[in-house]
Design brief:
Elements (H helix, E strand, L loop, with lengths): L15 H11 L2 H11 L3 E2 H8 L3 H13 L3 E5 L4 E4 L1 H13 L12 H10 L13 H12 L10 H9 L5 H10 L3 E3 L6 E3 L1
Antiparallel strand pairs: 1-3, 2-3, 4-5
Length: about 200
C-alpha cells in the first residue's frame, strides 16, 4: 500500500467547515465503501466498479465528489488511479482530537468535591447521572442547590424548572434537598427556600 503523502493539508483553526465536508463526503454508504477500498491502495474506476459490482459511471460520480471534498486524489498516472487523502483525514482527526475537553463549571475549595463533580457533570454543567454512593450523591445535590439564592422563595414549579436544567429527574433532586435539610418547604407543595 502506498502511504507516501505529498504536502499535508493544513486544517484551519476553525475546522467546522472542513469537518462538515468530511462528514458529508463519507455520509453516503457507497462513498464510504469506495474510501475503504482506496484506503487499501490506489485503484482505478474500473477496478472499483468491479470490486463493488457497480457501473463505472456511478463510481466516477462518487469519486468526483470525494476529490471535490479533497478526501481522495486522482486520477494519477497512466492507469488513472485514485487514492485516499490520508494526509487530509489525519489532519482532520488531529484537529478533532486536539481540541481541549471542556471542563464542567466546578467551583469548590474541596478537592474531593471537584473530583466528584468532574465525574458526574457534563461539560455544560448538567448532571450526567446520580452517583450510587451517598457521599458522592450529596456532593451532586449540594451542587444543584447553587441554582437557588438564599432568602428567595420559589414555587414548586420554579424549583422543578431550575432543577430540570441540571437533570430531567428534578423530583429526586428536590426530595434530596429537603431530606438533607438544605431546602425547606411549606406543607402541601407550597413555597421552597434554601435553609
Amino acid at each position: 500500500m502506498d502511504t507516501q503523502v505529498s504536502e499535508p493539508d493544513v486544517i484551519p483553526a476553525d475546522s467546522a467547515p472542513a469537518l462538515l465536508d468530511f462528514l458529508r463526503g463519507l455520509s453516503d454508504a457507497r462513498r464510504l465503501q469506495i474510501a475503504g477500498r482506496l484506503a487499501g491502495g490506489h485503484c482505478s474506476v474500473d477496478e472499483l466498479a468491479a470490486m463493488l459490482d457497480e457501473k463505472p459511471a456511478a463510481i466516477q460520480r462518487q469519486l468526483d465528489q470525494l476529490v471535490h471534498l479533497r478526501l481522495a486524489a486522482g486520477p494519477e498516472g497512466e492507469a488513472q488511479t485514485y487514492r485516499l487523502r490520508l494526509d487530509r483525514i489525519h489532519a482532520l482527526a488531529g484537529q478533532v482530537l486536539a481540541r481541549p475537553r471542556a471542563e464542567p463549571p466546578v467551583e469548590s475549595a474541596d478537592e474531593y468535591e471537584r473530583k466528584v463533580l468532574r465525574e458526574f457533570l457534563r461539560p455544560d454543567g448538567a448532571i450526567r447521572e446520580f452517583p450510587a454512593q451517598e457521599k458522592k450523591f450529596q456532593v451532586v445535590v449540594r451542587y444543584a442547590l447553587r441554582a437557588f439564592e438564599a432568602g428567595q422563595r420559589y414555587t414548586e414549579k420554579e424549583v422543578n424548572e431550575r432543577l430540570k436544567r441540571l437533570n430531567r429527574d428534578s423530583a429526586t433532586l428536590r426530595r434530596a434537598m429537603v431530606e438533607y435539610g438544605w431546602m425547606q418547604r411549606e406543607g402541601g407543595g407550597g413555597a421552597y427556600w434554601r435553609s
